[in-house]
Specification:
heterodimer, A: 501 residues, mainly alpha, two-stranded antiparallel sheet, 20 helices, globular, B: 478 residues, 19 helices, 2 strands
Amino acid sequence: MIDNFIPLIVFTPLIMSLILYSPFIADDEKIIRRVSKGFITIHFALTVLCSIFFNFSNPDFIIETDYQWIDILGINANFAFDSLTMLFVTLTSFIFLISIYLSKSMIKKSYRLYYALIFILLTAILGVFSAKDIFLFFMFWELELIPMYLLIQKWGSGNKQKTAMKFLLYTFFGSIFILLGFLILYYLNFKLTGTLSSDINDIDIISAPKVLRDLIFFLLLIGFGVKLPIIPLHGWLSDVHSQAPTPVSIILSSILLKLGAYGILRFNLQMFNYEFQVFAIYIMLFALINIIYASFCAIMQKDIKRIIAFSGIANMGIFLLGISSLNSIGITGGIFQLFSHAFISAGLFTIAGLIYIKCGTKNITRITGLGEKMPRLMFISIPILLASIGTPLLCGFIAEFLSFTGAFLMQTEGIFDAKALSLTALSVLIFSSIYILKIFHGVFFNTIKMKNRKISDINTKQLTILCLLTICIIIFGIFPFLLTDIIREYTNITYNPQGVF
Amino acid sequence: MEIIKDIQSAFLPELILIIFILINIIFSLFIRKNTYRIAQITTISAITLAGLAIFFIQINPTYLAFNEVYISTIYTTSFKIMILISGLLVILSSNNFIREKRHKSFEFFTIFLAGILSAFSIISSNDFISTFISIELLSVCCYFLTSFRRNHKSKEAALKYLVTGASSSAILLLGISYLYGITGNINFSNISDAISTSGINIMFIISCILIISALTFKLGCIPFNNWIIDIYEGSTYGVGTYLSLIPKIAAIGLISRLFVFIFSYSPIIQILTAIIALCSIIYSAIGGIKQTNIKRLYAYSSILQSGFLLLAASCVSVYGFSCLIFYIFTYIFMNIGIWNTAIIYTTNYQSDEIIDYKGIFYKNPYFSIAYTICLISLAGLPPTSGFLSKLYLFSALSREDFTYLIILFLTLCATVISLFLYFKIIKVIYEKNSQDTKIIKNITFGKIILYVCSIITILICIYPNEFIKLSQIIAYYM
């Protein structure tokens, strides 16, 4: 029975987007908004129901459904939820819930197309998380480009046309590396085992030549690194985040960056575990560059959304640092970081978006003294901003603590010492408090500059959304074992960690 | 009695086409009213009957008719079916366009049918003389069709096409005569036998290069592409659709058969063809970026797609040929989709510029979504058949040797650039245009074709198994 949840969760958004465009639903703003909200609520309820039925205590537990697709080439539409996927799916549905509830005040035109595209995007993302077949994975990976492109180019701000094209070309450029890697993987598997199959569990290339395995590893790392992003490949991110409409920015930073992370976890860490161990210290070096470079960039920015975007890159650096430590604690911390960053960045972008619609600008030098006009927003943004800095008792702290501990405990030989790297990264983290407090101080304190603009406080609905995120941040900060236990069990059996804690 | 058996087993569809061409000519002498309607009915019935007749010809085992000049295999038959499908769709989609432009209907349709007939005989011919004659016949049909629009540009295009086409035919003839000089044969299988006993020499390679040059000219690949853009721009949309499908399918069918019989003896030709294909993909992906005219953009798109077709043909393997068949089959529908949109739009607004498509989404959502699906499919993004056919093609390329891996990587890079070409239109469609909102009306029939094409494009992506299985069987029995 529980297997039937997969098509129900993955494909209903796609059907919903068709229903939104069918002649049965009148082109009326109120109806479309209500239908979309109702649907996403039901969808979230479904995922929660599925995760209640899901047996998290057993890390081997898996629910799956198989469909025939291109049987003759061994490519099949197989979907599976394991513990990690289940967590990601629930997270995705939750973030979409928030972003759709926020859309009312942020999206003013062509709402029908907007909601249809959002639902296609939801299917694409859930498909990536649940696909068990490499080409199916790739199909959903590509499917997410089209709605994303249109969402940015229609509802974005600033130079949106150029940004949308930049996003499209950058991401597609990344995905050709993934495709090339997958094709070599698929063909190599055929040569070695004699069966045409692209199922992740069937692929067995242990006996392949080392150079080919390394080649595939790096192709996939580059491909997922564009999405994550790893520093030299990050060119698209700041523009896209700052110019996308706020609900889409939330989805981008909370979910889409996690797709890259998921790809690295699923393929680079799980399938190419040996290669990952060999190159772990270099990946850690890149993680360090991510943290340092992105922190400095964030300090220099004036656009509030850009600051948050760069802090996202730094946070993904922490994830990379955590998983490249290759012990149970570090990997758990790295994966926990994905969830914690999803809540925090959703909160931060919501705050930035609300400030943008109230003040009409994203430039923090022009927004000052909002504290007296918007006390509710100021009050609710305190825990979110503090969590982003990494204050204890909030979920950001747990993620950073576990990642850095893991990195510090890593045993290394050679010129790069993991302890030195992790300590450097840790000391750079001080910058995160600089740019976050710069936002807080600049925006809410000082005297107000925009005297002639009527600025009202956020309404109850928006406050509720922010409260929801804050509750998540606090709960996972105080009771991290809710997530870390599941992740640790999963890590211990899947990623073959060196030190088991 | 031999000739009757030959006709029955290999030549029946062609015979039906010939009969209907004659019927069309005879009708044109007597009928003055409703010429368009009658000519259309005869043409559609000719295509339908030829399609039915295809199922009666002998495909297994291979049948050689007329002293081994004419061959009938499952491979040629599948190409013929694809030509008939595209011919039918071209006629149906150019419905209003031809009528409103007041073409001389009978002549148009007669030449149209003659083109299909010659495409059939290009694919089926097993001998260089009949190949050459059929190519000439197809070229002459294309020259006439190009000049059907009554303006200066059309005439210029036709003349340009005639001159360049004639020189390419001369090159083809030169290559054939060299090959005849080496082997003393004109029959494909005999040449193949002669080469396998004597081995290859420099003359053989030169003649192969000459033949490949002439045939890639017909496909419109680099460096023989200079005609294609002006000619697409000069001709009507209906003819543009025709030119982007029928000569292309015929030429690629012939190239793939020549690869099996003759070119496969020399790996240089294989690599050369792959490089030509790669160059056309890169050239058209970059060249299309600056275009503002929709016909010129489509011309670049057609060069791009012929590059992919040639790439599939150049990896001479069962996998490659099955991929070629699947690619052509999916290409027909997406190509008809985009050209049909242009036909519908131009009938309403008489404009060839991309910028005039601005904001058509807001008043015609379904129409624009169908158009977007076809464009996305050509760009190779899911959930469309174009994605699968590209994926299949790339998986075929990854099976070849190391050279092909580099070609594959460069092709993938060019695919990224080609996204720009197609998203150029998509960007414009969804842009808000506050001044005038354009409603596209009056053309229900064309719209139905567009919707059918886009739905088929998506359905092939969801249920591709049977198509790929069929294409593999066809390629296996080639």
